[in-house]
């Protein structure tokens, strides 16, 4: 791969990663809890970072923001980390664009090179900020993956099962894109400095 194409590809992957982070943050499908009775779904609870929705068997959806119901601790942390990741990604893109050779924001070649390296490092850090909440939520769901049954009260005989939501899959994909983008940008910096 030509040396000038590598950071451009890394920047493009990171831009797609930013889009994935925004979609993952906005989707209300981080985790899905289904309630069963006699192999029939009674209700599905879909939780996201901003709202929780209840879906009836007839596909009627009612959503409620977390201002009315308490936000679980892991979702509070996930919300904060994803927002920080988005901010870091935007800064990384700005640094990456300013550090490109076809832009004359910075006339000094060494400064542009350092800006590009900082951009790659920002994408790697943002990748970790996306990876942590996605992994944490996945672990929480895996701990509650097997159906549990309430032995008492009106919920007797009702099985509850937690599942991964679409936003987590998008988060994993986003993490890979950010690591690839940041790695390509950083590797082009070290390759360029190694040849000088």
Brief summary:
By secondary structure, this protein is of the alpha+beta class.
Number of separate helices: 4
Would you tell me the structural class of the helices and strands?
alpha+beta
Helix percent reads 55-70%
The count of strands amounts to 6
- Cα(first) to Cα(last) distance is 18 Å
Note the overall shape: elongated
What average pLDDT do the residues reach?
Answer: 84
Topology:
Blueprint: H1 5-26, E1 31-37, E2 40-47, E3 51-55, E4 61-65, H2 73-98, H3 109-143, E5 148-149, E6 159-164, H4 166-195
Plain-language structure description:
A six-stranded antiparallel beta sheet has the order 4-3-2-1-6-5. The chain has four helices and six strands, in the order H-E-E-E-E-H-H-E-E-H. The radius of gyration is 21 Å and the shape is elongated. The model has no long low-confidence stretch (mean pLDDT 84). With 196 residues, the protein is of the alpha+beta class. It is 58% helix and 17% strand.
Comma- or semicolon-separated keywords:
single chain, 196 residues, alpha+beta, six-stranded antiparallel beta sheet, 58% helix, 17% strand, elongated
